[in-house]
Amino acid sequence: MGEALTLFEKIWRSHIVLEEQGEALVRVDLALIHEGSAHAFRVLDAAGRGVARPRQVYAFADHYVPSSGRARGVAGIPDAGFREMVLGLERNSARFGIQLFGYEDERQGILHVVPPELGMTQPGLIIVGQDSHSCTHGALGAWALGAGASEMTHVLATQTAWLRKPKTMRVTVEGGLPPGVTAKDLILALIAKIGAGGADGYVVEYAGPAIAAMTVEARMTVCNMSVEAGARSGLIAPDEKTFAYLEGKPYAPRGAAWREALAHWRTLRSDGAARFDREERIEAGELAPMVTWGTSPEHAAPICGVVPDPGSAPDPVKREEMAAALDYMGLAPGTPLAGIRVDRVFIGSCTNGRIEDLRAAAEVARRGRAVVPSWVVPGSMSVKRQAEREGLAEVFLKAGFEWRDPGCSMCSSYNGDEMRPGERSASTTNRNFRGRQGPGARTHLVSPAMAAAAALTGRLTDVREFMR
Amino acid sequence: MEKFTTLTAIAVPLEGANIDTNQLCPSRFSKTPRGPEYARILLHDARFNPDGSTKGHVLDREPYRGARILVADRNFGCGSSREGAVYGLCEFGIRCVIAPSFGEIFLNNCYKNGLLPVVLPAEACAQIRRQIAERPGAELAVDLPAQVVTDALGRAHRFEINPVRKRCLLEGLDDIARTESYGAEIAAFETRDRAARPWLWFYL
User: Fold this and answer.
1) B164 and A132: CB-CB below 8 Å?
2) How far apart are CA A259 and CA A265, in angstroms?
3) pTM score, two decimals?
4) Angle, to 10 degrees, between the axis of helix A381-389 and the axis of helix A355-365?
5) Chain mean position to CA A57
6) Distance CA A196, CA A194 (A)
7) How far apart are CA B140 and CA B34, in angstroms?
8) Mean pLDDT, residues A27-45
9) pLDDT in tens, B146-163
């Protein structure tokens, strides 16, 4: 009998080229880049180096693309600075023979939405993306992590990375999620429990009945926000749902190769006797729809709760931090969360911009009319077309939502889609950081259905009221 | 990469947990190529009003404007992988950040840019922040070979660092050159991997 290993350890071991004083040189299967990778290409050029394995690098126009008015293509991007970022990615991709999913490509979309759609994200792969939400890909049993420009330069130049082995944490989610409670609520509840730095230095494996019951897309939402708990990566063992999701996708193996891959993928799960450095447990049945009240994803509470009182914090440091967050958010302690007025609603992003997210939002949107400006930004062109085929776009438009074009848009506001100072949003994104959606903008993170409910009422609203 | 050995310099205290890379480098500045502008981009929205006038942030007050060491709170640099957060610190003149914990991607970005991240216990960080707030202009001494920070009261705080990261900082080593010296090992790995996972499209 072999040594009992976790899923992560199996992937880690199978990718080590060599080890040196606490670091391993690890072979990277896929590198994902975007317009912001301009920094990495500048470093590469300055060092006079090329791209080692261009067939294992994919480029996505997502961060700087406009979310409307794309009829005229790249030339029609009004802001010269943003246009130059999109063009720069085109030039660098062409120069090094990297496949680009560009602004005018019918498969264009967010770098964490498109690769799973195309079947590139496969179990057992090591994926390094130049974006912190690269952990999303872990939902299919890959080990996926974000990197900065310099680390990406190294990956591009060598198709390897020097990494320290992370500690392992298993989060077991028992029971089942109640009606109206989603993957987004689960991950927000976990971050509130362990803190925004709670998983610093760990790779998190999500397991248990509630994870097994989730669709692959819902699992992506969970893994996506691992980084908001401090973990550079999160993953889930692939199962029959994962295999069914991948089968027939353009980059997935076929025929005999599929069967061979499947046999390997079935070994990619933590052994029964495998030990984790840390174990956390969550009862799914006890969860409610969540909403953030502050400026860190750890500032999250059930929608039925109130804005917490900094005075009740255990120590003066935490007290000051909470008070500063409430000051930024313009909220008073004790205010019920349900009922807080919002100025805008944003539905989209690599966290919640997939087809199931739009279905959940549309299910609520069809019950009323948006009373505040509300945007729906699909995660990819493929999601957009699918939503149009299913009639979801029509639902949103009838309900007064804006139906826009794919990209990161107001999640990160790189492309200029931002709120005015003091404006407050209900947003399906991943970060309620100060200024994330524009200088002075106030963000409340919620699930897609909760965001749609807020659009219809103009307030943070318990979506379960719409389900009665 | 600039080498780091020892540094005795003014230190600036930065209060607040979870100071994320969006605050360190707001998104709208991220497309700026690396250069001296990043000194002003660092913590821009906390330091400057919309009209460009200063808010009197601690980084813009004397004598902290000349600080080369920054002492922060837990989970410093969490969030986005944007390396602009590190460019800003470097261009401002900071060579060492001391905090109880760091965002992991930010931590790696520091190492790759010759910026030394030092992890000390939360209590020690809080004490040092208090010292340098009460004695503006007080210097800290950072000794990387000995792995010791000496605070403003002369107390020594030992810190841990991975030996490879330490060597790279001490010698200003470029990781890529180091990796290329293992070209044969990488090629051998690839040959084995092609045989083990022939179904991967990029091997076809």
Assistant:
1) no
2) 10
3) 0.97
4) 40
5) 20
6) 7
7) 28
8) 96
9) 999 999 999 999 999 999
Q: Using CB atoms within 10 A of its CB, is residue A305 exposed (0-12), middle (13-18) or buried (19+)?
A: middle
In B95-144, where do the E strands start and end?
A: 96-99, 116-119, 139-143
Interatomic CA distance for residues B123 and B135, integer angstroms: 18
pLDDT at B21 over 90: yes
Whether residue A408 contacts residue A110, with contact meaning beta carbons closer than 8 Å, is answered with yes
- Residues in Cβ contact with A146 at an 8 Å cutoff, skipping those fewer than 6 apart: A128, A129, A130, A131, A132, A133, A134, A135, A227, A232, B81, B105
Tokens of A213: 């019951």
| Tens digits of residue pLDDT in A58-113 | 999 999 999 999 999 999 999 999 999 999 999 999 999 999 999 999 999 999 99
Quick check: A258 and B201 CB within 8 A?
no
- Nearest CB neighbour to A27, from listed B73, B105, B193: B193
Contact A183, A212 (CB under 8 A): no
- Phi–psi pair at B99, nearest 5 degrees: -155, 160
| Coil/strand/helix, residue A153 | helix
Give the number of beta-carbon pairs within 8 Å between A and B. Answer: 186
- C-alpha distances in Å from residue A2, one per residue of A5, A6, A238: 9, 12, 21
Cβ–Cβ contact A198 with B under 8 A: no
Q: Is the dihedral of CA A364, A366, A372, A378 positive or negative?
A: positive
Kindly state the tokens that stand for A174: 């028992």
pLDDT digits (tens, 9 = 90+) for B159-202: 999 999 999 999 998 889 889 999 999 999 999 999 999 999 99
Q: CA gyration radius for chain B?
A: 19
The whole-number pLDDT of residue A1 equals 52
Distance CA A93, CA A169 (A): 37
3-state DSSP helix/strand/coil % of chain A, to nearest 5: 40, 20, 40
> How far apart, in whole angstroms, are the C-alpha atoms of residue A358 and residue A376?
8
Does B146 lie at the interface with A, CB-CB under 8 angstroms? Answer: no
In whole angstroms, what is the distance from residue A77 CA to residue A65 CA? 8
ipTM of the complex: 0.95
**In chain A, what residues touch B180 (CB-CB under 8 Å)?**
158
Q: Is A6 helix (H, G, I), strand (E, B) or coil?
A: coil
Q: Which of A451, A423, A458 shows the shortest CA–CA distance to A437?
A: A423
Distances (CA, A) of B105 to A69, A212, B165: 34, 29, 14
Compute the average pLDDT of residues A418-447. 97
Nearest CB neighbour to B75, from listed A197, A260, A318: A197
pLDDT of residue A2: 78
